[in-house]
User: What shape does this take?
Amino acid sequence: MKFFDSSTLIAQGLFEPSLPRKYPFQRIPNQFQKLLRKELWNFSQNSAGVSVTFQTNSTKIRIQWKIKKDFQMNHMANTGIKGLDLYQYKNDSWYYRSTGIPISKSNDEIIFENKKTKLRKFRLHLPLYVTLTDLKIGVSNDCKFLNSQLDSKNIVFYGTSITQGGCASRPGLAHTNIISRKTSYNCINFGFDGNGHLETSVGQLLSKIKANFYIIDCLPNVDMKLIKTNVIPLIESIRSSHNSIDKPIIFVEQPDAHDNYFDENIVEKNMVLKQQVQKAKKIGHENIYLIECKGSLGKDNDATVDGIHYNDIGYARFAKHLITELRKLNIGF
Amino acid sequence: MKFFDSSTLIAQGLFEPSLPRKYPFQRIPNQFQKLLRKELWNFSQNSAGVSVTFQTNSTKIRIQWKIKKDFQMNHMANTGIKGLDLYQYKNDSWYYRSTGIPISKSNDEIIFENKKTKLRKFRLHLPLYVTLTDLKIGVSNDCKFLNSQLDSKNIVFYGTSITQGGCASRPGLAHTNIISRKTSYNCINFGFDGNGHLETSVGQLLSKIKANFYIIDCLPNVDMKLIKTNVIPLIESIRSSHNSIDKPIIFVEQPDAHDNYFDENIVEKNMVLKQQVQKAKKIGHENIYLIECKGSLGKDNDATVDGIHYNDIGYARFAKHLITELRKLNIGF
Assistant: This one.
């Protein structure tokens, strides 16, 4: 077999993929470390929402991946936290093929075997909640390996643990990855576990990205006070660059995933968000939108693993909701 | 708070709940140990498909649970393996409320809090893949606690790791639990990880249960040879008692969850199963049915975590498929 590693692989879902990185699939290049709080920087090294698209006629695909820390959580499968999954493009859609199941910090697995030699297009979704220190994709020696270019259209998602992918059973089932497969957009995942605080530092990063639009989905990580103080400064920080001066900024309400958490008044928080969005428009900001939460997770309460974090049912419904609502906004999506 | 423990709790999903057990929620009583292979017996001690239904007007519910072994798997969340989840009955349906998230062999968690005192009906689904050594349900001292009787109508499922619940994100999302909530049936889960071998020993157990019908869903654990040799003896062993002499036995085809596993010819296996079902009818067995796999997992390939085991999407679809197909069979379901 011949192997292609991070020194040559082109990935989707990275911010400025050509800039230097300590870890090959950290979402944000090294030079922005100083801009971010430590927590944000640490989570940004996780490969959430990152994928590698390639074509090969190999009858066998082998992957080898190493992770920085053998992290685990009690409400999320290791396959989602530190596994990889492979999709194949056929009949104009992406279809799941198989999962690289993590067994330790260093993993090696054949994730595709087929008797027929044929050029096939694949996408490998990288782990949601760990930092990859190394990834190698192996194909038969005599076979082609064409690593596709990035899609040119970008959506940037800024949010919480839910945005980062907690708790999809495998990476491909997180909503930013579903949306990237179902549309022709490169989705950049700026979900930071517990740290989606509507911060201007992240807004400054967002302003540097040539995105078609920005989705701000931070509400589960902020209280009413932070929504009031942070929404407009965040908009202003995103608007501070020519990249983003007129690009749609879309805020997302917090879904009422659960009615057991009495301390948190989601209805009121959503109302405060709506007021801030209206206020932003009133003071002259254009192309600011709000996606309401109604219907986003269905009515049966089964879309989460713990009342907060989405399971695979939740992500499938949420992705569908976002696609439907984005299409209504008349922003060329 | 006052606590109710396994010495008094009545559970659903157990075979002969009144008979002595080493562990309170092992699915099969001690006296049948000799009948079963060691692997079957070990897995039967897991509380897959077992639940406790109760009413209380307490504003707080606390659970304490201990497990025999702090088991984990790489493709299933700990919440599904060794956690518990709580559903509440309202508006004629069961709604998920919260999850008891396992953190060690011994766990203690408040899983319900509400400001209003009101009589509510709950169901607590027990862990899918570990053995509970102890469970305590706590409510406020001055409150009612009414542990409901078992439902009188039984469905018995005999199957594989998938039947046992691998890989639902939490216990309530395994299909036998979904079916138990959506119908008025007590579902007994005889899913044994890797060991659904269509065995007459299990058939003998099944024959001792007053079930409305039996669902045999073993195909992912057997090859063509075993299907040929075991299906009719299994039917005969189930038919060996007056409990089961005329009760429907329903075989389930193996879904083609995945097209990456070339070693296994699912289409052929399903054909052999169909032939055996036809042969059984021909030699005089009545009330033998087959549920086809077509459409059971949807068309998008996203219903599994690894190409075999169902994720939450898979279980939701499979439960719906089984309910729909069972209703077509004219067996009074």
In short: Chain A touches chain B at residues 72-79, 83, 95-99, 101-103, 112-115, 167, 169-170, 172-173, 258, 260, 262, 300-302, 304-307, 311-313, 316 (CB under 8 Å). The domain at 153-328 of chain A is CATH 3.40.50.1110 (Rossmann fold). The longest strand of chain A covers residues 60-67.
